[in-house]
Amino acid sequence: MVRVTCLGGVGTVTGSCYLVESVQGKRVLVDCGLFQGGKLMDERNYQYWGFDPKQIKTLFLTHAHIDHSGRIPKLVRDGFQGQIITSPPTAELCAIMLLDSAHIQEMDAEWQTRKNKRQARGSIEPLYTTEDAEAALKYFSPVERDRTIEPEPGIKARLRNAGHILGSSVLELWIEEDHGSIKLVFSGDLGKKNQLIVRDPHEVFDADYLFMESTYGDRLHRTLEASKVELKEAIDYAVSRRQKILIPAFAVERTQEILYILGEFNREGLLPDIPIYLDSPLAIKATKIFRNNKKYYDDEAMAIVDRGYDPFAMPNLRFTETTEQSIAINRNPDPAIVIAGNGMCTAGRIKHHLKHNLWREGASLVIVGFQAQGTTGRRIVDGAKHVKIFGENVAVRAKVFTIGGFSAHADQKDLLDWVANFESKPRVFLVHGEAGASEALGRKIRDLHGLEVHIPRWRERLILKPKEVIVEGPEEAEALPDFQAAMFNVIVDLENEIKALKKKVMARDRVGEEEVDRLRYLHEELKTIES
Ligand SMILES: [Zn+2]
Ligand SMILES: [Zn+2]
């Protein structure tokens, strides 16, 4: 019997974390990601782990993205002293990403503390600090993919290429039992076929239980070719109107894919003569790591290298490392391509560029990655007329190009093809997806492949026996966040505020135009939530 507790990355695409326990009492973790996307998700990062970090000797890490690795520094601070098994490029990428994440945590806490002080409240501790992140890096134990290892007696593992980002892996895990062993496969995030830079996902043929991502389980991506045409259109649209092209990008993989395509455009003479700014210290560091890891490139990327080019370089490309260089970009009114993080527009330099350009007619905003619920990027994609940036309502007048074909994720067809490789008819658990996506994929897997599918809830515990699964609900004390109750509370608060405001307005004879405007924005926001 193997017990798997789903501690994150279920019902959502963030916070990936699974506790696997064997009959002999061995406990290992698969991924330890950060929850992202709004206050309720953020609170989960501070809650009880669901296990004692001191007792975990092995953490398998599928890839470097923060939604899979972002709580590792906290895990170490809370007592983890085991080994973190992952591919060499993942270890290298985590070194820059965890330090960056720690920096963001520190800044957020500092900002919140300053805000609290003005309201005579206490200070806020960051989720973890730079020192915690540095300490965590010591526990990384890189292992090349395709090698079988036995990190603890009774537990065997092998990483396989997941084709999602540089170094990303699928995890094969064999847990020793009284009568043989049970094989679990964790897909991590899966890439799509013919993705740029990295090789296609490894095909796995057998598993008893498969934990598979379902981010785009309800969608088909456009082809890469169509997406390149759209990117070209977005560039031409803004250049002909003398405005900027903003590309909010995830620092790792997506940014390098965009650079790779811009490099192609440049070699084909398709790129207008305008500066291209990579305005993200993290993405600049990540690009250097990509350059140093050519042995993981696919054939097409290697062919570019063999022809004497750097796939991520072109003459007009400028790395803006300092804040001064970043600020200077918007002092110049001329057209430019600006690639800045973060990818969902919730933090980072992209917010400054949005504030300067989002309201400009003729500018292009190019969305090239998944936008989680509750993020600024998602609101823009969903058609908001205004979004809040640094406390200001900024009008969305730039043309928004949502280009799905650059996704580093498998789409519904890719996922169905990948699961079809399994000859052993595994029981499938769909994770790493919003409810609609997981459900749509689940129906397809049942209908087309006749596999049993279950979509776990947060903190659900699965008892896996050969050919039998028992599902236990989350414990009472670890209740799920109740969005409905939270929403209800906010509505009651709002009603009270409105009543108080009404009284004030009635008693006062002068109301400023700005106040009316702000209330109108609020009203509009309310209407969009309602619809
Ligand atoms: Zn990922
Ligand atoms: Zn992910």
Summarize the structure.
The chain is of the alpha/beta class. It is built from 16 helices and 23 strands. The chain starts with a strand and ends with a helix.
Explained architecture:
The chain is an alpha/beta fold and 531 residues long. Helices cover 37% and strands 20% of the residues. The strands form 4 sheets. An 8-stranded mixed sheet has the order 6-5-4-3-2-1-22-23. A 7-stranded mixed sheet has the order 7-8-9-10-11-20-21, with helices on one face. It starts with a strand and ends with a helix. The protein binds zinc ion (ZN) (2 copies).
How do the helices and strands line up, and which of them pair or pack?
Blueprint: E1 2-8, E2 17-21, E3 27-30, H1 39-44, E4 58-60, H2 66-69, H3 72-77, E5 83-86, H4 88-118, H5 130-137, E6 140-142, E7 148-152, E8 155-161, E9 169-177, E10 180-186, E11 209-213, H6 224-240, E12 245-248, H7 254-267, E13 276-279, H8 281-291, H9 299-306, E14 317-319, H10 323-331, E15 337-340, H11 350-357, E16 364-367, H12 376-381, E17 386-389, E18 392-395, E19 399-402, H13 412-420, E20 427-431, H14 435-449, E21 453-454, E22 461-465, E23 468-472, H15 483-507, H16 513-530
Parallel strand pairs: 3-4, 4-5, 5-6, 10-11, 11-20, 12-15, 12-16, 13-14, 13-15, 16-19, 20-21
Antiparallel strand pairs: 1-2, 1-22, 2-3, 7-8, 8-9, 9-10, 17-18, 22-23
Helix pairs in contact: 4-5, 4-8, 13-14
The site of one zinc ion has 6 residues, from α2.
